[in-house]
Amino acid sequence: MRFSFLMLALLAAGCNTRPAQETAATPPPAPTTPDAPLRETRWVLRQLAGQPVSVPANTREAYLTLRADGTAEGNGSCNRFRGSFFSETESELKFSPLMSTRMSCPAIATENAFTTALGKANSYEISGDTLRVLDASGAAVARLEAVYLK
């Protein structure tokens, strides 16, 4: 009887699989978000030249989609645009002149700044769901966020 009680106590102690250093006070490591792909992702504009972008009423969020065939397309808030992009090295990103419809709306200044920023693009950085478009000096001219459709 004494032997079986001792064996039961040892077995119960052996079932504790949590290492001593892992306690409730130690939070688990934060999951890392894999980098979104540059192509075939809907990138929504969040900042221009470090300033947040707001979406006026009755306009759309400005976005950019870079297709696998080298086509760049999107919406500047008022007008759709389309052109080509080049990314021959891992961080290079350059655009051909973008063609657009020319309707006016309350967000036309943001749209013009967005297409101007894309015209200055020289490279990019992706970190998780964030795309930073950089000019030739390495300054961020636009920050966009990957938005996934459900």
TrEMBL record:
InterPro entries: DUF306_Meta_HslJ, HslJ-like_sf, Hsp_HslJ-like
Signal peptide annotation: 1-20
Keywords: Signal
Domain DUF306 intervals: 36-144
Protein name: META domain-containing protein
